[in-house]
Design goal:
heterodimer, A: 129 residues, three-stranded antiparallel beta sheet, B: 392 residues, alpha/beta, Quinone Oxidoreductase, Chain A, domain 1, 2 domains, seven-stranded mixed beta sheet, 13 helices, globular
Chain lengths: 129, 392
């Protein structure tokens, strides 16, 4: 449970799949993992559903379950971040950046937000701007 | 630059911070000429909205002059005078295409946080917690405006800042609340809360053809504004008589208002002292984030088959929501953060035609440096305060 996620992106399945493989858009974290990715046409001209299923062995024992919950939740969070960034790039041409999260959505950043005030010049490069 | 930042519950201060920088091609930088304190800023100030961080620049109602544009912005030029809508919206996702701008699917870089709380993320909002993205706000000398090719609206006439500034939030928000009421002419509408948004909900209900508009508040000076400026036909001060439901029923011959607008939100208060004490206790002990004092009365007063329009801001969970009344009377509940982009142009036309002058709500004009005083005055309703405009 909790090892699948899905997001809908505007565009035909062919178009979305092509971009998924294009180096400018390619979600590295997901494509480098052994996740199972499927593209399905959404009903009523709503674009393409991207379904991502993470491959996981059943954890052994209570400790294993807890361990997987901790480790697993991080990787699922990263998968969701990457899906959202892919959607943003495809639909808007850029990754949404706020002053608190200038790199765009990242699981690590959620725990360590900048204050919502402009970046120093020296921070720009680090944020990939 | 100077900016008004949140530094803990009940504390804001004006500080020196770095100047904003273009982070994306579709960004623009605006030199702010006027910015306002919103009632919803008080929810941040009072500590009811989670995920605030010390140093966050506040403010989501602002306008000014474009001083820089990213490579992807071709509709704006340096020198343009613009009003900026408070929701940050990409204009290209499915929700934006359906004019549901405050549910933009792409503009919130903390979507994961918002999704945990609400099931789906909200759009990004300027200066409104990290849940809505962690964007620096507009109570400052300058602001970065993302998706500047979609949001900012050019002002190309000699209307004053105060006449057009409120197109950024409170006028469209009040208007949307009235539009939810499906007014066709002759209706009676009750508006809970005669703050700035309530005033615009009243004025909009009148513009849309309501025959009677009843304003409900606890401050006589606000009810006077509702009657004299916004166009309310009747008023109820719930401090004088806390039984609002009974009064509304009597005023409407027992039928109840055709639609009710909640322009109060999560910090509503009750005129019944014991009920108010319980509500405060529940909020203070974190048994609920959202007080239901106004919304409960609104639902109980609304006529069967009527519409409950909620534009007051709620943040989480409410205790004792009268689902039975809502269901058994067959009411419709309509709500949302305002899809400002949808309303800016048509409402700007109304202002240009002279149908309404939104500056009527302004009671205080202060320098940006006086923002902390502005928050205190506004919060405690001192000096007959309704709306504070700050001049950077």
């Amino acid at each position: 449970m909790g090892s699948t996620t899905a997001l809908t992106v505007l565009g035909s399945p062919d178009e979305v799949r092509r971009k998924w493989e294009d180096p400018t858009f390619r979600p590295e974290y997901i494509t480098d993992s052994d996740a199972d990715v499927t593209f399905r046409e959404a009903p009523g001209d709503r674009g393409t559903e991207i379904h991502v299923a993470l491959q996981r062995a059943d954890p052994k024992g209570k400790l294993g379950q807890v361990f997987q919950k901790v480790v697993g939740s991080v990787s699922m969070a990263k998968v969701k971040d990457e899906l959202r960034r892919f959607k943003q790039l495809v639909e808007t041409g850029e990754v949404a950046r706020s002053e608190a999260a200038p790199e765009g959505e990242r699981a690590e950043r959620k725990l360590k937000q900048r204050p919502a005030q402009p970046l120093e010049q020296s921070e720009l490069q680090k944020a990939g701007v | 630059m100077r900016a008004n930042v949140w530094s803990g519950r009940n504390t804001v201060q004006v500080e020196n911070v770095p100047d904003p920088k273009i982070l994306n091609d579709r960004d623009a930088i605006v030199k702010i000429t006027s910015t306002a304190i919103c009632g919803s800023d008080l929810h941040l100030y009072d500590g009811y909205i989670p995920t605030m961080k010390k140093g966050d620049i506040l403010g989501h109602e602002f306008m000014g002059e474009v001083v820089e544009t990213g490579r992807g912005v071709s509709n704006l030029a340096v020198g343009d005078r613009v009003v900026v809508p408070f929701p940050i919206a990409c204009g290209q996702c499915a929700n934006c295409r359906n004019e549901l701008y405050s549910a933009c699917e792409n503009s919130n870089p903390n979507a994961g946080l918002a999704e945990k709380m609400f099931g789906h993320p909200t759009c990004g909002i300027f200066g409104y917690s990290h849940l809505t993205g962690g964007y620096a706000g507009g109570q400052a000398e300058y602001a970065r405006v993302p998706y500047a090719d979609v949001g900012p609206m050019k002002i190309e006439d000699d209307l004053t800042d105060e006449q057009v500034l409120f197109l950024s939030d409170i006028f469209p928000t009040g208007y949307m609340g009235a539009e939810f009421c499906e007014i066709t002419g002759g209706e009676c509408i009750a508006v809970f809360g005669a703050g700035p948004v309530g005033q615009f909900a009243i004025a909009s209900a009148v513009m849309l053809g309501a025959e009677r508009v009843i304003a409900i508040d606890q401050f006589d000076y606000r009810l006077e504004m509702a009657r004299n400026k916004a166009g309310a036909t009747d008023t109820i001060n719930f401090d004088a008589d806390p039984d609002v439901v009974e009064q509304l029923k009597v005023m409407t011959g027992g039928r109840g208002p055709d639609a009710v607008i909640d322009a109060v939100g999560m910090e509503s208060v009750s005129g019944h002292a014991p009920l108010q004490a319980i509500e405060r206790l529940k909020q203070a002990s974190r048994q609920e984030t959202d007080s239901g004092a106004a919304l409960r009365d609104a639902i109980l007063a609304c006529r069967p088959g009527g519409i409950v329009s909620v534009i007051g801001v709620y943040g989480g969970l409410m205790d004792k929501f009268p689902m039975g009344a809502l269901m058994n009377k067959g009411l419709s509940l309509k709500t949302g953060q305002c899809h400002v982009h949808r309303y800016m142009k048509p409402l700007y036309e109304h202002v240009k035609q002279g149908h309404i002058d939104p500056s009527f709500v302004v009671t205080h004009k202060l320098g940006l440096g006086e923002a902390p005083n502005g928050f205190e005055t506004f919060k405690h309703k001192e000096d007959e305060c309704v709306k504070v405009v700050l001049k950077p």
